Amino acid sequence: MTKDKSKLDKEDLEAKEAVTPENDTVEEVNATEEKVEDLKTEEEKKADEIEALRNQLNETNDKYMRLSAEFDNYRKRTLKEKMELTKSAGEKILLNVLPVMDNFERALKSVDESNDIKGVKEGIHLIYTNFKDFMIQQGVKEIEATNQAFDTDLHEAITKIPAPSKKLKGKVVDCVEKGYFLNDKVIRFSKVVVGE
């Protein structure tokens, strides 16, 4: 065993000599060890940075998923509200039209029972005025057509006739069917006869 021990001591000595050549000093060894430690600390810093970036990525993904879910809920909620609004929007208008319908029924009843044509005419004119006022309240306005310059944005020419006077050339001579605006948007074009 002593031979083996001396052999091991000899091998350790040779290994130490191989690692630290004679021209290396203690300071160089210390500098090398410091460099190794610096490399270790740089690796640890990089590992910490990578971990911080992973955490930041996870947070960002979490925020994105939550935002995406919130937007999806918002979209579904607004779609549902639009559907309900569409259903109930017509209800309000129809409720306001019902009194006009009642007036027409009364007028029809009085037409059958009355011989006073003047009174019936007045009643029908009142109902028409009532209904026209209701339409104006809803934002519906009549498009002026007769004696106006022909405008393709407002009028639809159904025919042309010779103008009764030179002033009416290129203008609307007669309005066959009235056109209407709904809040300054044309919802029905006026069907007109144009003078040429």
TrEMBL record:
Q: What is its main location?
A: cytoplasm
Localization per Swiss-Prot or TrEMBL: Cytoplasm
| GO CC terms | cytoplasm
InterPro entries the record matches = GrpE, GrpE_CC, GrpE_head
Matching entries from SUPFAM superfamilies are given as: Coiled-coil domain of nucleotide exchange factor GrpE, Head domain of nucleotide exchange factor GrpE
Gene Ontology molecular function: adenyl-nucleotide exchange factor activity; protein homodimerization activity; protein-folding chaperone binding; unfolded protein binding
UniProt region (Disordered), positions on chain = 1-43
What protein am I looking at?
Protein GrpE
Lineage summary: Bacteria, Pseudomonadati, Bacteroidota, Bacteroidia, Marinilabiliales
In the UniProt record, the gene name given for this protein reads grpE
